[in-house]
Automatic annotation (TrEMBL):
Protein name, entry field: Aldehyde ferredoxin oxidoreductase C-terminal domain-containing protein
Lineage of producing organism: unclassified sequences, metagenomes, ecological metagenomes
InterPro entries according to UniProt: Ald_Fedxn_OxRdtase_dom2, Ald_Fedxn_OxRdtase_N_sf, OxRdtase_Ald_Fedxn_C, Tungsten_al_ferr_oxy-like_C, W-dependent_AOR
GO molecular function, one term: iron-sulfur cluster binding
Domain Aldehyde ferredoxin oxidoreductase C-terminal: 58-145
Length: 166
């Protein structure tokens, strides 16, 4: 997992480094952590040729996401929780330690972990967490007061994030 401190929110965030293979790279290089200090990121950080045009396109892009997301993936509502059912039917869901791309015993979209489950999980005190402040999608979600059920952090009250984040 990757963790970072978000200055604007005054909290730490983490994302899974899953399918891209970065975990294997870290293991092969015997790396436990990589620590970087970065300056504050602003719209000027990339030195856009036309700052006003970048703002205009960014606003247009955000409005399009807000309008279309409810009828497409619902990333703003359920986060990446809609992916397991899609990945299962397209043979992309890592199962049995990545040996297979779908559950043999679950046909089609009948996977028990779906966007409906995510709607239930996030029906109370929850929030969204984007990779950066101002992200329109904010596909990572949390639910306050969730208790971890297994592992070294068992019974510690924490936040529950979407399935591919912890």
């Amino acid at each position: 997992n990757f963790s970072w401190f978000v200055r604007g929110r005054n909290w730490a965030s983490s994302k899974q480094a899953g399918r891209g293979g970065i975990g294997t790279v870290f293991k092969d290089k015997n790396l436990k952590a990589l620590v970087c200090l970065s300056p504050k990121v602003t719209i000027n950080s990339n030195n856009p040729a036309d700052l006003e045009e970048a703002r205009k396109i960014g606003k247009m892009y955000s409005q399009e996401i807000i309008k279309l997301d409810p009828i497409q993936n619902e990333m703003r509502r359920v986060g990446t929780g809609h992916l397991p059912e899609i990945m299962n039917v397209t043979d992309l869901l890592p199962t049995e330690n990545f040996r297979f791309g779908m559950h043999k015993e679950i046909s089609g979209k009948e996977i028990p972990y779906s966007r409906e489950i995510m709607r239930t999980i996030y029906s109370g005190k929850e929030g969204a967490d984007g990779c950066w402040i101002g992200c329109t999608v904010s596909c990572s979600h949390y639910s306050e007061g969730h208790k971890v059920l297994t592992g070294p952090f068992k019974e510690i009250i924490r936040c529950r994030l979407t399935p591919c984040y912890c």
